[in-house]
Amino acid sequence: MDEPVIPGQGESSTGGAKNVSGSMSASAGAVFELSGATVRYGPLTPAVDAVSLRVRRGECVALVGPNGAGKTTVLRALLGLVPCASGRALALGRDARAWPRDALARVVGVVAQREEPAFPITVREAVEMGRYAHLGAWRAMGPADREAIARAMRRADVASLEDRWVATLSGGEWQRVRIARALAQEPLGLVLDEPTASLDLKHEMELFELIADLVRHDHLAALVVSHHINVAARFADRLVLLAGGRVVADDTPERVLEPARLAAVFNWPVAVHRLPDGSLQLYPERRPPRAPEAPTP
């Protein structure tokens, strides 16, 4: 059976329309979807328990919650890296584990939590790796590949760095290069696991501005794991709050950031305030000081 054509995609390096396997087009439904998904690592308490969520094109969704809430496991399930004990994990309407890895890489770009270059490469060479899913091991790059690489570097604002060695980059520059590599895949969706970890304020905001711009202007679907709830709340269309492997809330930041709910999830007293631009921000509170102990007689 012929594979359906995904609308809105350009031509492949061979000049034909880009095809992916799936039961629906990306424009008709979700790029990423979990439906009652449960994931277990051995006979233990589920890491993810009956989780449902959906991310469409033109939408940025942030997964937030305490350590061990199941955020990274959600990503792994959606990428077909772990099986669901029950429920479904779908990418473009198809079981995530049924996708051939190279086919999935042509429609989903991933920026993992940690990565260090294994050998010396330039920025351009790093971004070129994003074309591997289109080229395979032996085929040389064509004009369409070179244009995709140049476009990705411009989009992530790293074109001026193309001749730099990756080892000489700052943390913020390296993260933008990794996003450029993902964009060189020409994906419909991006999955980013803690993309701003260890970045300073300026680089963190710049990276989220880039993600928001890619969602808004390139109509990508973005699923972002972040511990920085305040930043995520300013950029994400929806927050999915996880705790103990379950979804506690899935809604707009306005509806998710409720003090009582957050205090219960994080086991810490919090306050929520509104900024002049209308966005809500979370502030952890100090616990009341302990009463001094009575002197020993």
SSE topology sketch:
Elements: E1 30-39, E2 48-56, E3 59-64, H1 71-78, E4 86-91, E5 94-95, H2 101-105, E6 108-111, H3 123-128, H4 132-135, H5 143-155, H6 171-184, E7 189-193, H7 201-218, E8 221-225, H8 229-235, E9 238-243, E10 246-251, H9 253-256, H10 259-266, E11 270-274, E12 280-284
Parallel strand pairs: 3-8, 3-9, 6-7, 7-8
Antiparallel strand pairs: 1-2, 1-4, 4-5, 9-10, 11-12
Helix pairs in contact: 5-6
How many domains is the backbone divided into? 1
- The strand line-up of the biggest sheet is 6-7-8-3-9-10
Q: Name the CATH architecture.
A: 3-Layer(aba) Sandwich
Largest sheet: 6 strands, mixed
First-to-last CA distance? 88 Å
What is the approximate shape? globular
CATH superfamily: P-loop containing nucleotide triphosphate hydrolases
> What top-tier CATH class fits best?
Alpha Beta
**pLDDT under 50 segments (min length 5)?**
1-27
Number of strands: 12
How big a fraction of the residues is strand? 15-25%
Radius of gyration based on Cα positions: 21 Å
Helix content: 25-40%
Order of helices and strands: EEEHEEHEHHHHEHEHEEHHEE
Number of helices in the DSSP assignment: 10
Structural class: alpha/beta
Q: What is the CATH fold-level name?
A: Rossmann fold
Can you describe what's shown?
With 297 residues, the protein is an alpha/beta fold. The chain has one domain: P-loop containing nucleotide triphosphate hydrolases (Rossmann fold, 3-Layer(aba) Sandwich), CATH 3.40.50. The protein is built from 10 helices and 12 strands. A hairpin with a 2-residue loop joins strand 4 and strand 5.
